[in-house]
Every structure is written in structure tokens, then in C-alpha cells.
Design a protein that fits this description.
The complex is a heterodimer. By secondary structure, chain A is an alpha+beta fold. Helix content of chain A is about 30%, strand content about 20%. Chain A is built from 14 helices and 23 strands. In chain A, helix 1 (about 15-25) packs parallel to helix 6 (about 150-165) and helix 11 packs across helix 13. Chain A starts with a strand and ends with a helix. The mean pLDDT of chain A is about 95. By secondary structure, chain B is α/β, with parallel strands linked by helices. Chain B has three domains: about 10-130 and about 265-330, FAD/NAD(P)-binding domain, CATH 3.50.50; about 130-265, FAD/NAD(P)-binding domain (3-Layer(bba) Sandwich); about 340-420, Immunoglobulin-like (Sandwich), CATH 2.60.40. Chain B has helices at about 20-35, 70-85, 130-135, 150-160, 175-185, 205-210, 270-275, 310-330, and strands at about 10-20, 40, 60, 70, 90, 95-100, 105-110, 110-125, 125-130, 145, 160, 165-170, 190-195, 215-220, 220-225, 235-240, 250-255, 260, 265, 300, 340-345, 350, 355, 360-370, 375-380, 385, 395-400, 410-420. The N and C termini of chain B lie far apart (about 55 Å). The chains are: A alpha+beta, B alpha/beta. Chains A and B meet through helix 8, strand 18, helix 10, strand 23 and helix 14 of A and strand 7, helix 3, helix 4, strand 11 and strand 15 of B. The structure holds flavin-adenine dinucleotide (FAD) (2 copies).
Chain lengths: ~475, ~425
């Protein structure tokens, strides 16, 4: 068997790896992406606030601050082409006390210096008029129209789907375990299943980027995990606030936000706590308490009773807090590390930066003539007008069958998600929202398992929540046998 | 099981019933009884019967049929009657929404999206289970944490087991029933943990499902942390004080691969909210008149949609009433309006219905907040009833007869359940 030599191999299929893969798929080069999980986007990129930051928060002197604003401006064409959920809903950074007003002014000035348009200071009257659910304690706010919300996991799925359409070689369930230098300026990456040869390696392994750099013998930094807990609220509260609500930042924290997610559900969080264990995704009662205690002062209509689900994600924080993007002492090994918040926002700018770096490093890259920028837009039955629903259900009866009752997701949408790469219950959930509503899968789990089993032709006990050991049921025989 | 799929729906019905569980079926029969001609039941499942179909244990029908039936048997008896009385039954059909003019939007894979209009509507969508988010149990999010009802469906309907060693959080009836079921299936059930100082399930279930199988019940104890990355590996449990604060110094770990949540049911109120029905914050179901009519004229509600029932027999009773009144509404023969409001007082969490009329007999259902030994129920000052043991898991019901109210001329009656003065 001929050994393939890839031009570029990306390690890690989070938002960063996926945007880089999609960017590189424009060029006539041979690219692979290795992801340790069963699907892409299952790391930090599915467990964050989903905000495309306005562009004014980060200092222009840091790489992070610069790429935040550059990235922000690239999201409209991306969402247009790839059809994932993205909307610029604007944000308010709210002052709850007089002494916070200078911070708002400084933030406005910083944004204007970076070229962020439309920043406005709103007084209490304007605030009460625009966001009547805000606490009376909110005395002023900085409004930024550039802030958006995105479905981050959907962005990853669609980016990768499009990259694959344009020739990317995607390998999931493929953890990189060793990295060695091969002959002629090549690298050899070893996974349990296979060996990959490549000229360039892009280290986009999130919280494990220091480990990957170490395997390659180029580690000059450590990545620490800073955990953030987020709490999702019942649909009942949809529309309570229209914009993302930030508290006034303090030197130690960006604080706890109220986020109208792209799908409309409110989410509150995140906390910020350093953790040793990079697999620690546990939520805590202290975290929940902190979030709801804080939010009560900002939007009094929200209480812990409205919580329907919670989760935690790990920010990959490098020493010095900035992003680490660039070449290393060994030719062909490029780090994209320490991509903490606002890494999602910055991702498209990071991707073009990485393409530039590879080109500068000598890879000849010409654009493909037949690059296909779009993926077919998935059908979202519930939001179609009645006539369209009637027509669709007549053409394809699977769209007449509700699988998820909370979010009104049809069998047709689930089958489509499986066709597009969903292999697990989480994969279905993050593509279609089936199981994300208030009953949290109580109703649809067994149906989704039946559909996965049928489509992938595996027995039901082999269906997992998110790969690995996350099985859901056992066959009866397994217990009676022991 | 008999299924009679209705092939073609009529464009107009007297009464459309949403949900074909015990509530929906009894309501349809009630409507027919009162002369409603065209009655339709819609259920999203392949068969009518609701949650009863997965309750393969006995214990149903002792009141209504005076014999002990399994859930599916109980449902079957109603279904046979429904089919005899020529009610249209659309299974595998989802009610997407209902508008102000009572046009009901339905969807099914066979017939696609259709709209039928109704003179009266009965909502009988049942309840859904509370999930982990509702109690915010700290820890990781592995697979193996699921509601007791979902586990029941896996075992009883699909023939799969949820794991090998289970812990049950919450002593609701479904959890108790599942503790026994899983034991019979060969799983080890390490214990049932209840944060309250008293059990939340029926006493007979504590005895028949836990005691008889030596499954320990730990009161005033809860799961404080969930561990495991892919699959559940263990839970940490700890006793709690009167303010429900766990005492971590007395916590312990239990290795298990399955955690069943039996932490309560919430009325399925998607459609109730869409219709803007007034909701009782305690029951989380619609506020109802004595006819089981909601705050919107011609929209009737019954069963777990209104408040959570522990016995299906009372569901059938309540639903029959709702259905009869829907039938009367559709044929324009309504009874007089209610004139008395019931107000839950001491140790009463809620009363259903919320209002009554002094010229008819009513059954009022209520739940106590705290268990009491010897107690007395006071209906304002007009009537008192001695009760023996009362506790939150068992619904209290009271027949209110017109004669109690002969002398009463007010418009509200407070209901208290207090200890007997000793
Ligand atoms: C709570 C929270 C809230 C946030 N909110 C925002 C926000 O609102 N806006 C914003 O812009 N940013 C936000 N961020 C930051 C943002 O989520 C991250 O910057 C972004 O997701 C990072 O993407 P990534 O691809 O670098 O990391 P990841 O998504 O973690 O991807 C890394 C991938 O590498 C894989 N991997 C690791 N090791 C190996 C290996 N050995 N072999 C193969 N694959 C491997 C992992 O499985 C993973 O899929 C937030 C972060 C957190 C934690
Ligand atoms: C595990 C368990 C054990 C129990 N044990 C006992 C016992 O031993 N003895 C006893 O007497 N009682 C018992 N009960 C209680 C009793 O069975 C329930 O209270 C009763 O089934 C509630 O009836 P219902 O018709 O209101 O709801 P359900 O039985 O839940 O029926 C509601 C129906 O509506 C359908 N539906 C909902 N929304 C829609 C929509 N939009 N469109 C179409 N259809 C819809 C649902 O699919 C369902 O079929 C038990 C309950 C459970 C869950």
C-alpha cells in the first residue's frame, strides 16, 4: 500500500482546527485532520458561551485583542455560505454603580481605536426602554451592535462538512500518540490505528496543545485549564433580554453573562476556575450558586428554578494569557495554542493567519478552481410556514413524524443529520437540537437510538452518547450470562 | 392490542381530545355520553394508552374496576369502549398547535399536516419527568444518568437494560417501581435516596418494591456528586439537614453505572402555554373551574396535564367529568357558572378544581405539604372531615355536597388540613 504524504495535517477538530481545515480546503494541497473524539467539535468548542465578541473587549496590543476584531468581521460570509446559526444581536456591558462608568468609557475608547463601529453609551432610561427586564440597578451601559451569537457546534460540523466536500481527509477517533521527524523534512504522526506522514503539522489540540508540542519536542509553554460552568434556562424565559448582557469587567474577570443563545434559549455563565485535571468537566454547586446569585442582580427575573441543564468547558490558557500562533524551532511544526476566549470569535482570522504562515514557510498554495463554498442548508421543520410543512410532509413522510417533542424535530431532520456525519446521540443533539429541550431527551432518546441503529446498521446497545465508553443500554443477555 | 387507525379525519369535530392516555380516552367517552357526535382523540404514540403502556406492573384499577390490573390491561378496557362508541382515533399523530378559534394543527407521517376545527377541545397530554438540570446535581455528565421513566421504557418496551448496578435518586413511584423491576431483571440496586424526610411514593410501593427486595431507602439523603467521564462510575451521597444542606463530612461514595432520577413529574404544558391558559404556579398545570374548563372558554383539561395524579383511577374520574362538560359545551348545554373560589390554606399545597358551584356535588383533589398523623380537613367553616394519616405522596380528596353550602353566602372558602386538636 502506498503511503500518503499529506501537505498539512491538523491535530484537533475544534473550532480552530475546523476553520483552518476549511480555509486550507480552498487550495490545491492535500490536507488531513486528526481528531481524538468520535466527532469533531466535542471539546471546548461545544461547551462555551457561543458569543462572537463585539471586537472592543480585547486590547489591540495583544494578539488576542487584534484577532478578536478581525475574526468578528469574518463571520457573516462564513455563516452565509455554510448556513449555521449566527445572528448579530448586539451586546450591553452594564454598569451597576457610578464607579463603573469610567470603565465603560475606557472600553468605548478602546473599541473606537480598533475601528469597532456603532458603540454607544446608553443611560438608564434608554436601558429600561430597550431591555425592561434589566435590574433597576443598571444605571448605564455600553451598547455594541457588532456582537453576535452562534451555534458553535453547528459551525464546527458545517465547516468540516464543507472541508470534506472540498477534499479534506477527516480521521475521527484518532488520538495522536506520538510525533516523530521523518525523512526529508516530514513528520510522522502515530495514532492507535494508523500512521500519518505529513510535511506540516498544525497543533490545534486545545487544552492538550502543550502535550502535542511536547511529543514533537518543541514545547516552550504550558496550557492551563480554566473551567467555565454554564446554565441553560427553560424556554419560558425566551425573549426576557434581547442582547447579550455583560457585567462591567473587573481586572480579574469578564464576569457572568446573560446570553440569548442563537436558538433563543437563555443561558447564564460562565464561571472561571483553574483546574488541574484537563478531563474535569464537572459542574459544582458553588459554581451554580455564584452564577445565579450574580445574575439575580442584573436580571431579577431569572432564578435557579428555571435551569434545565448545565455544562462546563475548559479554556486553554497559555502562560501570559495570550494566543500562541506561529512556527517553532522545528521546521513544519506550527502551534495554534492557548486559544482561550474569545477563540471562537477569532477562529476565522486565525485560519487565514495560519494559511499565511504555511505559505510563508514555503508550501506552494494555489486556489482550487472548483472550490465549493457552501453546504446544503438543513431543513428546520418547526420554523417553516404551514404551507411549506404540508408540502414537505407530503413529499417525504419522515418529515411528518415528530421525534423530539420539546424542540419539534422531525425524523427527516434526524436522518439528515446522520447522513451528514452524526454518529452518536450527542452528534444528533448538537446538529438538530433533539434532546436539548426541557425534557432533556426523556422522550426522544430511544427513538434517536433506533434511527442511528437502523441507519448505521449496528445493534442498539452499540449506540453511544458521545463515543468511547458512553454506552446507553446493555442487551438483556449480558446480565443473565454473568 | 387493538388498533383502529382512523384513515380519514373529518374537517370538523364537536370535541377534539389531545392525548390518548387514560385521561384522553375517558374524556372522549364522557363527551360521547353527553351527545357530542363527532369526537376525535389524537395521540402521538403508535398506540393509545399513554404512560400506562409501559407500566407492566399490577396496581391499577382497584377503585374504578374493583380489581387489580396492569397498566396495559387498564388501558385496554378503555380502548375497547372507545372503539365501540365510534370515536375517531388518530395515533402516530402529533398536535402541533391549537389556535384561538380552536383549529387544531395535526401532523403525521401518513397524512402529513392537517387542520381540523373543534367546538371544544380537551387537553390530556399527560406529564413529563423532571430531569437532572432541574435539581442541578453537581458533577460530570456521563451516560448512565437517566429518568426512571426512560429506563422503564428501555426495559419494558424495548427489552434493553440500562446498566448493571443502579442507584435511584428520589422516591417517586416510578423510581420505586423501577427499583423492583431492575432487581427482577438481575441488576443490583444499591439504594433509593430521598432528600425529603419522608418518601414521595405510595406506601404500598415502598413495601412491595423496596422492603420485599431488601432495597434500602435513605431519607434526608441525596446525591451530591456524579462521577465518570464517558459512563457513570460512581455517585457521592450525603445526608442533608432541615435546610437541605448536605453534610459532606458524612458523605460516602457508591460505585454504580446507572443513576435513575425519580424526582417528580411536571404537567406537559406546551399547548396550555401556547393557548395562554392561566397556570397555577404550584401544580404547574392550568387553573380549572369545576367543569374542568380552563381559563379559556371551551378548552377543557384533565389528568396529569392539570396536576400529577398517583392513581389512574382518579385520572379516569376527573377526565370523564372534563369530557362530559366538553360534550355539553359542544352541544350548547352548559351548567351554571361557579360561584365559590377554593383557597389552599394551612398545609394544603393546592386544590383542583380551583372554583366550585354551590348547586352541584364536586370532588376536590388536594395535596398536603407535610405529613400528619391524625388530622382534620376544614372547608372554611362549613364542613370538616377527619383524616387519618396524610402525606404529600397521597392525594386527598373531598366530596363537597350542595348541602354543606346551604348556609354559606361568601365567595371564597379556605381549605386547611391541620392536626386534630388533642
Ligand atoms: C466556558 C467557556 C465560554 C467561552 N465563551 C466563548 C465565547 O463566548 N466566545 C468566544 O469567542 N470564545 C469563547 N470561549 C473560548 C472558545 O470556546 C475556545 O477558544 C475555542 O472553542 C477553542 O477551540 P479549539 O479548537 O482550540 O479547542 P477545542 O474545541 O478544545 O478543540 C481541540 C480538539 O483537539 C482534540 N485533541 C486533543 N488532543 C488530541 C490528540 N492527541 N489527537 C487528536 N486530537 C486531539 C480534542 O479532542 C478537541 O476536539 C469560551 C470558552 C469556555 C471554556
Ligand atoms: C411509572 C408509573 C407508574 C404508575 N403506577 C401506577 C399504579 O400502580 N397505579 C395507578 O393507579 N396509577 C399509576 N400511575 C399513574 C397513572 O398511570 C398516571 O397518572 C396516568 O397514566 C396519567 O394519565 P394521563 O392520561 O393524564 O397521561 P398519560 O398516560 O401520560 O397520557 C398522555 C398521552 O398524551 C399524548 N400526547 C402528549 N402530547 C401530545 C401531543 N402534542 N399530540 C398528541 N399526543 C400527545 C402522549 O403521548 C400520551 O399518550 C403510574 C404512573 C407512572 C408514570
Amino acid at each position: 500500500m502506498k503511503i500518503v504524504l499529506y501537505d498539512v495535517t491538523i491535530i484537533g477538530g475544534g473550532a480552530i482546527g475546523c476553520t483552518i481545515a476549511r480555509e486550507l480546503s480552498r487550495y490545491q494541497i492535500n490536507v488531513a485532520l486528526l481528531e481524538k473524539e468520535i466527532e469533531v467539535g466535542f471539546g471546548t468548542s461545544k461547551a462555551n458561551s457561543g458569543i462572537i465578541h463585539g471586537g472592543h473587549h480585547g486590547s489591540p496590543d495583544s494578539l488576542k485583542g487584534k484577532l478578536e476584531w478581525e475574526g468578528n468581521q469574518l463571520w457573516d460570509p462564513l455563516a452565509d455560505e455554510l448556513g449555521f446559526g449566527f445572528r448579530r444581536i448586539g451586546e450591553l456591558t452594564v454598569a451597576l454603580a457610578e464607579d463603573q462608568l469610567p470603565t465603560l468609557n475606557a472600553l468605548k475608547e478602546q473599541g473606537e481605536k480598533k475601528g469597532v463601529p456603532g458603540l454607544e453609551l446608553w443611560d438608564r432610561d434608554r436601558l429600561q426602554q430597550e431591555e425592561p427586564s434589566l435590574s433597576e440597578n443598571a444605571i448605564a451601559a455600553l451598547f455594541a451592535p457588532t456582537t453576535g451569537v452562534v451555534n458553535p457546534y453547528e459551525a464546527c460540523f458545517n465547516l468540516i462538512e464543507n472541508a470534506v466536500l472540498n477534499g479534506l481527509n477527516l480521521f475521527v477517533s484518532s488520538p495522536v500518540q506520538s510525533i516523530t521527524e521523518g525523512p526529508d523534512n516530514t513528520w510522522i504522526l502515530q495514532t492507535p490505528k494508523k500512521e500519518y506522514r505529513t510535511r506540516f503539522v498544525i497543533n490545534a489540540a486545545g487544552v492538550f496543545a502543550d502535550r502535542i508540542a511536547e511529543l514533537a519536542g518543541v514545547r516552550t509553554f504550558s496550557i492551563h485549564a480554566r473551567k467555565g460552568e454554564e446554565y441553560l434556562l427553560d424556554k419560558r424565559l425566551c425573549g426576557l433580554v434581547k442582547r447579550v448582557i455583560f457585567p462591567c469587567p473587573t481586572p480579574v474577570s469578564k464576569g457572568i453573562l446573560v446570553i440569548p443563545t442563537f436558538d433563543g434559549t437563555l443561558m447564564v455563565g460562565p464561571t472561571a476556575e483553574m483546574v488541574e485535571d484537563k478531563y474535569n468537566l464537572a459542574t459544582s454547586s458553588a459554581g451554580g450558586q455564584q452564577v445565579f446569585d450574580f445574575v439575580r442582580n442584573v436580571v431579577p427575573g431569572i432564578s435557579a428554578r428555571d435551569c434545565i441543564a448545565e455544562f462546563a468547558g475548559l479554556r486553554a490558557v497559555a502562560d501570559g494569557e495570550d494566543f500562541i500562533i506561529g512556527t517553532t524551532s522545528k521546521k513544519g511544526f506550527i502551534n495554534v495554542a492557548g486559544i482561550q476566549s474569545p477563540g471562537l470569535t477569532a477562529a476565522p482570522a486565525i485560519a487565514t493567519l495560519v494559511a499565511d504562515i504555511i505559505r510563508d514557510e514555503g508550501l506552494s498554495m494555489s486556489l482550487k478552481d472548483d472550490f465549493e463554498p457552501a453546504v446544503p442548508k438543513p431543513i428546520h421543520f418547526a420554523s417553516l410556514p404551514t404551507e411549506k410543512q404540508i408540502e414537505l410532509a407530503r413529499q417525504n413522510p419522515s418529515y411528518g413524524q415528530i421525534v423530539c417533542r420539546c424542540e419539534l424535530i422531525t425524523e427527516g431532520e434526524i436522518l439528515d443529520a446522520i447522513d451528514r456525519g452524526a454518529k452518536t446521540l450527542d452528534g444528533i443533539k448538537f446538529r438538530t437540537r433533539a434532546g436539548m429541550g426541557r425534557c432533556q431527551g426523556g422522550f426522544c432518546t430511544s427513538r434517536c437510538m433506533e434511527l442511528l441503529s437502523r441507519k448505521m446498521d449496528v445493534p442498539i446497545p452499540e449506540i453511544t452518547k458521545r463515543g468511547g465508553e458512553s454506552w446507553v443500554v446493555k442487551p438483556r443477555t449480558e446480565l443473565t450470562a454473568t | 392490542m387493538i388498533t383502529a387507525e382512523t384513515q380519514h379525519l373529518k374537517p370538523e369535530y364537536d370535541v377534539v381530545v389531545v392525548g390518548g392516555g387514560p385521561a384522553g380516552m375517558a374524556a372522549a367517552l364522557g363527551a360521547k355520553e353527553m351527545g357530542a357526535d363527532r369526537v376525535l382523540i389524537v395521540d402521538r404514540e403508535k398506540e393509545a394508552g399513554g404512560i400506562l403502556l409501559q407500566c407492566i406492573h399490577p396496581g391499577f384499577g382497584l377503585q374504578h374496576f374493583k380489581e387489580e390490573l396492569t397498566g396495559p390491561e387498564y388501558a385496554q378496557r378503555f380502548l375497547e369502549k372507545v372503539l365501540e362508541t365510534e370515536v375517531d382515533l388518530a395515533t402516530d399523530t402529533y398536535v402541533l398547535d391549537i389556535d384561538k378559534d380552536k383549529r387544531v394543527k395535526l401532523m403525521s407521517s401518513d397524512r402529513g399536516v392537517e387542520i381540523v376545527s373543534a367546538k371544544a377541545v380537551v387537553l390530556a397530554m399527560g406529564a413529563r419527568e423532571r430531569t437532572r438540570g432541574a435539581i442541578r446535581t453537581p458533577g460530570s455528565r456521563p451516560s448512565g444518568v437517566l429518568t426512571a421513566g426512560l429506563a422503564q421504557k428501555f426495559v419494558n418496551m424495548l427489552g434493553y437494560l440500562p446498566g448493571k448496578r443502579a442507584v435511584i435518586l428520589g422516591s417517586g413511584d416510578i423510581g420505586l417501581i423501577m427499583a423492583r423491576r431492575l432487581t427482577l431483571e438481575g441488576l443490583e440496586v444499591a439504594g433509593v435516596f430521598e432528600i425529603m424526610p419522608h418518601a414521595n411514593g405510595l406506601n404500598r410501593n415502598i413495601v412491595q418494591c423496596l422492603h420485599d427486595y431488601n432495597i434500602p431507602l435513605h431519607l434526608s439523603t441525596t446525591v451530591v456528586e456524579i462521577h465518570g467521564s464517558d459512563r457513570l462510575e460512581k455517585v457521592t451521597v450525603a445526608p442533608v439537614d432541615e435546610t437541605f444542606t448536605p453534610d459532606m463530612s458524612r458523605s460516602w461514595d457508591i460505585p454504580c453505572d446507572t443513576l435513575l432520577l425519580s424526582i417528580g413529574l411536571i404537567p406537559e404544558n406546551e399547548l396550555s402555554r401556547q393557548l395562554n391558559l392561566r397556570i397555577d404556579p404550584v401544580t404547574r398545570g392550568p387553573i380549572v373551574r369545576s367543569t374542568m374548563e380552563s381559563s379559556m372558554d371551551g378548552v377543557f383539561v384533565c389528568g396529569n396535564v392539570v396536576h400529577i395524579h398517583d392513581l389512574v383511577d382518579f385520572v379516569s374520574q376527573e377526565a370523564l367529568l372534563a369530557g362530559r362538560n366538553a360534550g355539553l359545551y359542544a352541544t350548547q348545554q352548559q351548567p351554571p357558572e361557579d360561584n365559590i373560589r377554593l383557597v389552599p390554606g394551612e398545609n394544603v399545597a393546592y386544590c383542583v378544581p380551583h372554583t366550585i358551584s354551590s348547586d352541584r356535588e364536586h370532588t376536590v383533589y388536594m395535596r398536603v405539604r407535610k405529613p400528619l398523623e391524625a388530622s382534620v380537613l376544614n372547608l372554611g367553616e362549613v364542613y370538616e372531615k377527619k383524616l387519618r394519616y396524610v402525606f404529600p405522596a397521597e392525594m386527598v380528596n373531598l366530596k363537597v355536597r350542595p348541602r354543606f353550602l346551604h348556609e354559606f353566602h361568601g365567595d371564597t372558602l379556605k381549605v386547611d388540613i391541620v392536626p386534630t386538636a388533642s
